[in-house]
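Deviation from plan, reported transparently: zinc ion complex.
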Amino acid sequence: MKLYGHFAGLEEQFPIAMRNVVCGAECGAGWFVLCMDLIRLCDERGVEVSQIKQKFGELRFYVGEAPSEVHEAIRIATEKSKTICEECGRPGRLAGKHWIATLCDEHRGGGL
Ligand SMILES: [Zn+2]
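Because the crystal trials were delayed, the predicted structure below was used instead.
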């Protein structure tokens, strides 16, 4: 699958990890660093990423067959994502009634 957005071109940089992202990869710029650390680790360990997305305000990072070390790194990144604004990477918290997201004060705006 061709990757778009922040993840465009990563299939060339990380040919093992990103060669078979069947369900796509997307998340806000604020979480990109978290994702990059995981992608780098997966590539080094020969693990294929299957999907990256946001769900219920936290990062969801799905992989194929992987050692426990990789699953642990994903668990930690998922925990961190709950405290980082998905848009800008500053400290954030879970917000929203209809569309739940983890955002900082600025990106949460007044309405939520
Ligand atoms: Zn923000």
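The CA atoms of residues 90 and 102 lie 10 Å apart. We consider this an acceptable substitute for the interim report.
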